[in-house]
User: Fold these one by one.
Assistant:
Number 1:
Amino acid sequence: MALSIGIVGLPNVGKSTLFKTLTKKQVLIANYPFATIDPSVGVVLVPDERVDKLWEFSKSALPVSATQKALQAGKKIYATVGFVDIAGLVKGAAEGEGLGNKFLSHIREVDAVLYVLRAFKNADIINTQQEVNPLKEKEILDVELILKDLETVNKRVESLAGDVRAAKNPSTSLMARDAIKEMDVLKKAKEFLSQQKVLVEQEFTEDESEILKSFQLLTFKPRLYLLNGKPKEVSQETLDALKVYNKNDGRQNGGIFENYIILDIGTEYEAESLSIQERIELGLPELSGTDMLIKKSYELLGLQTFLTTGEDETRAWTIHKGDTAPNAGAAIHSDFEQKFVKAEVIFWEDLIKAGSYTKAREMGLIRTEGKEYVVKDGDVIEFKHG
Ligand code: GDP
């Protein structure tokens, strides 16, 4: 499953620095607007101690080379998330200001959007805004994305009009009836967008959401807000307002998911090259801020991990929460879903505690599960197929 997250933000808020920290790749950073013209993609490993521990447990072979390790080939394979640096979103972008329409289309392809909002107050760094105000920045970005969505919705409404007229005919086909349903959802979305409301913050039924998702609307994508600054630079008022914005975004964990993160990107950038040991010695948390961001993105998308382990390979597989054992099998090979017979399942920590597969089996910790089994985060699975 290839996941991608688009990074958006006004110029000079720290997007390039974040991207560089995330990917540890060199991208152009400069203290002026429109520094980064081409959107770049960086594939990032999802840090996962379960992979590390199971890999040691199974004495999986060492990665063949450092390069392969970086590409998560070799024998220890982490899940990945792709970050797309979408540069230079400015006021008026939807009408072609700045880099305009061209790059907005890149956001269409991502699974989620990360808003980078400036909270740091360093006066040396040119701010395209009058003052540091993350909420105002969010609004500017929202307006551009809303305008783009309106354009998409209007186009779709126009092209559907004929189908809807046909559907009024008594011999209405199933397809035409779908057209009516689609039109209703589009009108509802249009109403919100016309009131400058972001779709992800509005209430839609499950059916409506399914239809909306198919249009890849920019304001309907799951989103995270990254406040670039130190915790003391972010006011409670800002956080409270973002919480209000988040309140209706009930699609993740019943709305309790806190989809913002305060991160001092400047410091993270400098700390990124430190090892875990060095982080501990300096009193920094073991997980870097960007690691936390990656994990949070993963959570945002309603994803979870199951694991496979053996001497040859230990690997994290990405699936959706609620996926059954055959769905999980399909992550490994499309055949596994059809040919699924049963799965042998054990929670990763239980396996490590047992000391070996044989012992775990003796202790009755390995369960045999059928087609209906809903996979849990951290399950180690062995599939049996016909
Ligand atoms: P972009 O235009 O959004 O990609 O912004 P950049 O990443 O190029 O950052 C613009 C400038 O702000 C650079 O000089 C960065 O070094 C600086 N910068 C980025 N993040 C921080 C931060 O957290 N604190 C401070 N003080 N400066 C930062």
Note: Residues 134-167 form the longest helix (34 residues).
Number 2:
Amino acid sequence: MSQKLKILFVASEVVPFAKSGGLADVAGALPKAIAAKGHEIVVVMPRYYGIDKRDLEHIPGPLGVPMGSMGELWAGVYRTKLPGSGVWVYFIDYEHFYGRSGLYDENNMSYPDNDNRFIFLSKAAFQLARKIDFKPDIIHANDWHTATMPVLKETRYALDPHFVDAASVLTIHNLHYQGRFYKGAIDVLEVGWDMFRPEVLEEYDGVNFLKGGIARADAVTTVSRQYAREIQTPEFGWGLEGHIKAHSDKLYGILNGVDYEEWSPAVDPYIAAHYDIDDMAGKAVCKEALQEDFSLPQRPDVPLIGFIGRFVEQKGISLIAHILPRLLEMDIQMVFLGSGEKWAEGFFSDVAARYPDKVGTYIGYNNALAHRIEAGCDLYLMPSLFEPCGLNQIYSLRYGTVPIVHATGGLEDTIENFDPYSRFGNGFKFYEASPESLFNTVAWAVKVYYDDKRGFGILRENGMRARFSWDEAADAYDKLYQMLYYKQQMKRYR
Ligand code: ADP
């Protein structure tokens, strides 16, 4: 029998309130899908400077947060509902930690007190659950920011009747970011120096939040099955592969869904014309509009290739940079949207200036343009060196924009390589993260575009038919929660 559960879901960013990457998309969508299964779920996040208090409901009375050697700090609490749902999002308001222009960093420099900022969030979530009398069956933490919650549950809050029956889940959205800090954080956490061991929080005489969470959570999930396998290897484990392997019996891969209410060419408010699999005429209009956005020649016949993402090594920007001059010898157009590493911002801007007929670059964050790129392009480039799940390749499928991807993580799980004979598949994949492989695969895709129009059309249709829904992902999380709940019940009778 499926049990109705209470879930405390804590994340450092949640769409539509604050976003730097895929974590926010998940934290804004998964709780709604979980609630739709009949569970009661509340979301907790910081009240960053950019979130206007006037749009939120104030919860009277301050929230005391014990911060160990820093003493007790007092936060304000606000709340509102996730748009289009009955799910409450609670905001922890503390000017000193969250009244800044960035979420984690400014001018590419991490805030030096990120350990305290997110210990604060993690502890505030426990305190808040008590304050609003929400006794969770499941505590669901996300990424390094809240990864100390499973450790806190077993130490600082171990004897608290409010949490004794709770099980903990930690979802890793990106293992690259682990939360490594000076060991003094142990005294702020108040988890006891017994936790400062290599088996739990200690790493090279410092603390590693994610490591502790992996050790102490009742279950650890990652956002695709392939990524769950990969992070147990030195290539993708960022030093934690041994630790993760040691805990692999509680490791699960659950693929993210996407929000098709936001990302569907039939309803998208940002694009020049709507279209769908039965009537693709609008896609040509979107292509023309995108070429105009980037001042490119408005040619319907030329393959237009898009890239959207953070300009960081993870996204394969160096691979692209290596081969770009050679790629541009082909009759193609390319558009780039993103920001991040300065060399890349300069490089992609320069290329656009040098090849104005072939390349368009927009440096910055622009959601509307991201939608227009998905709709207007023929091909989408995602050569990530590693990719826990990845969203843009899934959006591309829906928009009939054929992805070219490196076979890693979620890209491996969602994209099936084109087979020119059977015409199965939904994209183009390469298996070695080298400039040569990327070049050959883009060249192959361009050749199919020009020479096998029927095959390319089938690829498009195959992608547009596929669905990666949150409902399906929520089913998997629900099963996991249920299993943990019953395990927890068994413990009581032992
Ligand atoms: P990650 O979380 O590693 O950044 P994902 O593919 O999982 O990568 O998610 C990235 C999300 O952020 C997508 O929704 C993507 O469209 C969006 N995004 C990234 N960079 C930009 C940008 N410069 N402008 C608009 N949207 C962006």
Note: The chain has a mean pLDDT of 97.
Number 3:
Amino acid sequence: MSNVTVIGSQWGDEGKGKIVDWLSSRADVVVRFQGGHNAGHTLVIEGKVYKLHLLPSGIVRPGKISVIGNGVVVDPWALLQEIDNVREQGVEISPKTLKLAENATIILPCHSAVDGAFEAARGKGQIGTTKRGIGPAYEDKVARRGIRVCDLADKDILKEKLGRLVLHHNALLKGLGAEELDPDVIYSDLMNIAPSILEYADVVWKTLDEAQSAGKKILFEGAQGMMLDVDHGTYPFVTSSNICAAQAATGAGISPKMIGHVLGITKAYTTRVGAGPFPTEQQNEIGDKLGERGHEFGTTTGRKRRCGWFDAALVRQSIKTGGIDGIALTKLDVLDGFEEIKICTGYELNGKQIDHMPASQQAQAELKPVYESFQGWIESTEGARSWAELPAGAIKYVKRVEELIGAPVTLLSTSPERDDTILMHDPFSAV
Ligand code: GDP
Ligand code: IMO
Ligand code: MG
């Protein structure tokens, strides 16, 4: 039996939350390893909806351990609020079941302020960030200015580090014409919540090492998607962390050998929130129909998601750069009733055919998708729980997706509900 690592293979919102929740019945520990509360993972369990941002999607299952790894940037106020919200929905959360890496970097109000101010200053060149302070917090981490969970236990170090950090950000805010922040206010606000956060602080690498030695199964839950990866995505229209499976090792403090089977969560069409290239985008009635049928509004910001056809060239690339072994194909039901369905198999650039997304921003913007066309199916796949229930047209589509991306479909999802899921191969016994 191996561990499983789940990552998104497109631009996020592929249905990672639903699949992680479903898979977590087979796991003992669920671990987030990058990103922050820019993520929005939706679970639907017998009609009850849970929207998670920082908490791992295994949190709703009693008896499971949920871990927030060192690779995550944690807004402590957002975390406490989310714990309260999820508790109100009847989920038990305690320091026994939730572990927060003591070496995780903290997001402060100056990070979201700078995130917003830079976005405003970019004008037409906006990235369309979630304005949650994700980018500025990762910048501070790499610049060795960051404040970490463990610093909350040391008043003097915290005060000193915070003074320097806010000085840095105030210079930026001043330059951008935004309001400066008072370090003393941030300090006292942090001291107020420090005990509630420190309750969950843990030596996460050790907890995971012990779990592995005891034969427990670990499920790593990625956020965002490979095309938002800071190295392999559509830079600069990306997030500020690595999304690839390899990040599970550095972002949790485990051996790369513990990553196990890598499951790429893949929507049966494509969506993107925020700015940046999107070769198969349909700014027409097709995109509107996909958006309406798929309820494509952001879980975190409520923004309308851009929609388009499935891009097999892009997913094929994510499989290689992300280290994906097999995919979970989600939202197949959204394609029900389309007369014609298209799949992008590659691109045309300056009159030449290419089979991958080039790195250059200019080239990415100029790509023309090359499509293969399919006859759609009129039957419903919504709620299907076995391969046998799928219409022939849908089966043909899934088979062609597998051929074009060069990886097997391990799981299929046919509605937001937890159990409307078809298992083809158990990823926990795949390696
Ligand atoms: P994540 O960020 O990857 O976890 O995805 P989100 O939760 O942001 O967005 C996926 C949306 O699609 C959520 O509203 C899910 O409830 C929903 N969803 C997941 N799988 C399916 C599916 O197979 N069919 C349909 N119709 N909706 C799905
Ligand atoms: P989940 O985990 C979709 C996008 C933002 C923006 C870019 C940078 O739910 O799939 P950031 O705030 O991270 O600096 O924004 O990345 N983005 C997401 N898009 N799903 C997400 O997470 C995202 N997290 C960030 O919209 O374009
Ligand atoms: Mg999401």
Note: The pocket of guanosine-5'-diphosphate (ligand 1) is lined by residues 8, 12-18, 40-42, 44, 265, 294-295, 299, 330-331, 333-334, 413-416 (CB under 6 Å).
